[in-house]
Design a protein that fits this description.
The complex is a heterodimer of chains A (about 230) and B (about 45).
Chain A: H1 4-27, H2 36-41, H3 45-72, H4 75-107, H5 115-136, H6 141-154, H7 157-167, H8 186-229
Helix pairs in contact in A: 1-8, 3-4, 3-6, 3-8, 4-5, 4-8, 5-6, 5-7
Chain B: H1 3-46
The chains are: A mainly alpha (about 230), B mainly alpha (about 45).
Chain lengths: ~230, ~45
């Protein structure tokens, strides 16, 4: 039984996705660079940065859900945290894949142990550990408490990843949106913001679905237990 | 094929993957809902 909101969200998402593909590959002008591969690789930016934003947003929701769980012991918050952590890991994985695809033609290497890259990898590993912890511990309050603690402590890496390009000298490009060092041309800015909005919408849809699924699985498990008692 | 086409295809495949995942989740929600209805009926019968 799919709700009407989900259906509307999915239709908007499909339209937004088609428009974003058009904007990124047809509408946005080519950047000026000596290397032709670099000109094309720059278009990864419209996918790479929104993926990172979505990852940060997802981990922020994990953080809030974990705090709310520890304060109230309400299972709803635990499930929201898990659903959000899964989505966060998925999108930080995309960041870690698209980054090297851009780096190869621009830097000449796939990977370097730069602060931004390393802290992003650590962030990914923290939330993979969060999901593994949930997978291997038996269901119960101990698992919920431990994962909430990991969810809270793990979030401390998000500001480190975000500010790493300001705090340390890094090879990673500086922020062009939230700094005075550079700014985007109007069409690039529009395409970027559109892509960002599409990804945020995708997050809203995915979290709704994952939460719905986790709640259903939870209810089913309870019903199975009830059946066993009968 | 030039790099532009490769990038376009990669972007398309990533989105296809995401929509595939959405399709899978929707199927699973429907399946779990069916399973839950059946279980409820069984529990009611046993009661």
């Amino acid at each position: 039984m799919r709700s009407k909101i989900d259906k509307i969200l999915l239709i908007i998402l499909l339209i937004a996705f088609s428009v974003s593909i058009y904007l990124i590959f047809q509408w946005v002008p080519q950047i000026k660079a000596s290397n032709p591969a670099e000109q094309i690789a720059q278009r990864i930016f419209y996918f790479h940065v929104p993926s990172a934003w979505l990852g940060f947003l997802a981990f922020f929701v994990v953080f809030c859900g974990s705090v709310a769980y520890l304060a109230t012991r309400n299972r709803k918050y635990e499930l929201i945290s898990v659903a959000s952590a899964e989505i966060g890991v998925l999108f930080i994985s995309l960041v870690l894949i698209t980054g090297p695809i851009w780096a190869k033609p621009v830097w000449g290497i796939w990977w370097t142990w730069d602060v931004r890259l390393t802290s992003s990898l650590i962030l990914w590993l923290i939330y993979v550990a969060f999901l593994m912890l949930r997978r291997y511990l038996p269901d119960g309050s101990k698992r919920a408490n431990l994962s909430a603690v990991v969810g809270i402590i793990g979030f401390t890496d998000v500001p480190i990843v975000y500010y790493s390009i300001r705090w340390w000298e890094t090879q990673h490009p500086k922020a062009v949106m939230a700094s005075s060092e550079g700014s985007l041309a109007a069409p690039m800015f529009f395409a970027f913001m559109f892509s960002l909005a599409t990804f945020t919408l995708l997050y809203v849809y995915l979290i709704r679905k994952r939460y719905q699924l986790l709640t259903l699985e939870d209810t089913l498990n309870k019903q199975f237990k009830e059946m066993e008692i009968l | 094929m030039d790099a532009f086409v490769y990038l376009f295809l990669a972007y398309g495949f990533i989105w296809l993957g995401i929509f595939g995942f959405i399709w899978y989740m929707n199927k699973k929600v429907d399946h779990l809902n069916q399973e839950m209805t059946l279980l409820k009926e069984l529990i009611d019968q046993k009661k």
